[in-house]
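Deliverable D4.2, example record:
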Amino acid sequence: MIKLLTSFLFIGMLLLSPLPAPASDLPFQPGEKLTFLLRWGVIPAGEAVLMVAPPEEINGEPAFHFVMTAESNSVLDLFYKVRDRIDAYTDRGMTRSLLYKNKQREGGTRRNIFVDFDWANNQVHYTNNQKKNPPVSLLPGAFDPLSVFYYLRCLDLESASVVERPVSDGKKCVIGRGNIVKRETVTVPAGTYDTLLIEPDLKDVGGVFEKDRDAKIHIWVTADEHHIPVKIKSKVAVGSFVGELTKARLSLPDPVPTQVNKDER
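Output generated by the structure prediction step:
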């Protein structure tokens, strides 16, 4: 269940289009932390956190570092314990992904996924538990499934009706698309917000969405310059899953960058 909710947060970000603002004018900076309560129907299932971590360097290139964690609560731990963490890195201009890491601990499943974006050869390389897949061709400006959400926040969503951007999880590279449906007031544990409702196109998304023709994801982001996600709701055959913002801490000053090399990963 938490695995599905985590996927909804990522898949919901397959949407995008024009160029972002300069780094100093972006709607997020290191220090931002967003906390969500996850529910299956009315049943509390766990917590997810989105963070903008201290900046780093990936093979000498300055990079943003985004983190997402998902953790099941003590009740669900008895049946299906989840401790997931995703680390995603983009260039500081928010034009493309550089590296994506996904460490999954879900029940008896253990995955350690590394996705290297090789822009010199326009290929993406996927490794899971040290088993490598054949490389996949990259579309220009592709983002990973987490970083693309932060790219979304850089766009002028109020002026768009349909937005798109290439997205790759290392196994494939597709054009993610979504519709800006309407403006709506939404109340969540963190407060009441003026939001924009976004609905992604799920035709290129597999798994549970591929099996359910009526599957949908709705994402509400604040209708201001930050475009903070406040609510995410999915409808699939196995039920309705919801993530709601409970706490939001906005940016702190940039810390000193650190260096990350491929041989250290």
